[in-house]
Design goal:
Elements lengths: L1 H19 L15 H15 L5 E5 H8 L3 H7 L10 E2 L5 H8 L9 H5 L1 H8 L2 E3 L7 E3 L12 H4 L3 E9 L2 E10 L8 H19 L3 H31 L3
Helix pairs in contact: 2-9, 7-9
Subcellular location: Membrane
Pfam families: Cytochrom_C1
GO molecular function: electron transfer activity; heme binding; metal ion binding
């Protein structure tokens, strides 16, 4: 049993490492899975800007629409662009081999990205793209250096410029990117883009665990039931043993 436990812990290490991410301070995503309006805006952003490359092959359109309060007819009309049936999984038609040639690696499925990376990481990542002409797509990312994808939300945010500072590393002075500054060319203001990034993060968190709110509600009821059962059992024990003592 101990051997199996140790093996299981070692198996979790890669996931924990990925979730930790680089040594960059992460911003607080401050999401709310009960905010259906935010989830709906996040779904719209994902379908319009992310689905072209990133699938959610373990999530169905119908379940998504139902959970976040989108009428099936509206969802099918405004959020399904490839003619897929509403009961289909959320997939795209991109060829993995072609994608690997274009981006250096096939874009990952994002169904579970919030559970692997964490919501704060995703939110910070979406806000940390900056102009870098040395990269194939002209951008880089503070929390994911040498990222192999374009800034797909650039038309909304604009093209941020890097904020750098000189730091000492291993006895040498190096220039590090520590933040970004928007250039004002995007369709959204800073506050509007912050909300958009939070909405998209919220949606990804929901997709990673669609039954989370339901499970938490059931858990509270179970705990309440156990508390009442304990009180009744305790009172029954006192009554039963009263005459014995």
């Amino acid at each position: 049993m101990m051997k199996k436990l140790i093996i299981g812990l070692f198996a979790l290490l890669p996931s924990l490492t990925m979730a930790a991410g680089p040594s960059v301070p992460l911003m607080d995503a401050n999401i709310d899975l009960k905010d259906n309006a935010s989830l709906q805006r996040g779904a719209k952003l994902f379908m319009n800007y992310c689905l072209g490359c990133h699938q959610m092959q373990y999530q169905r359109y119908e379940r998504t629409f139902r959970d976040i309060g989108i009428p099936t007819e509206i969802g099918q009309e405004q959020l399904i662009f490839d003619g897929s049936k509403v009961g289909s999984h959320i997939k795209n038609a991109i060829d993995k081999d072609d994608a690997a040639k274009w981006f250096g690696a096939a874009p990952p499925d994002l169904t579970l990205v919030a559970r692997v990376r964490g919501t704060d990481w995703i939110y910070t990542y979406l806000k940390s793209f900056y102009k870098d002409e040395s990269r194939p797509f002209g951008v880089n990312n503070v929390v994911f250096p040498s990222v192999g994808m374009p800034h797909v939300l650039q038309e909304l945010q604009g093209l941020p410029t890097p904020i750098t500072e000189e730091v000492e590393e291993h006895g040498h002075t190096v220039t590090k990117v520590v933040g970004t500054e928007t250039d004002g060319s995007g369709e959204m203001s800073d506050d509007e883009y912050d909300r958009a990034a939070r909405d998209l993060t919220n949606f990804l968190a929901y997709v990673g665990e669609p039954s989370r709110l339901e499970s938490e509600a059931i858990g509270i009821k179970v705990i309440g039931f156990l508390v009442i059962l304990f009180i009744l059992a305790f009172m029954l024990k006192k009554e039963y043993w009263r005459d014995v003592h």
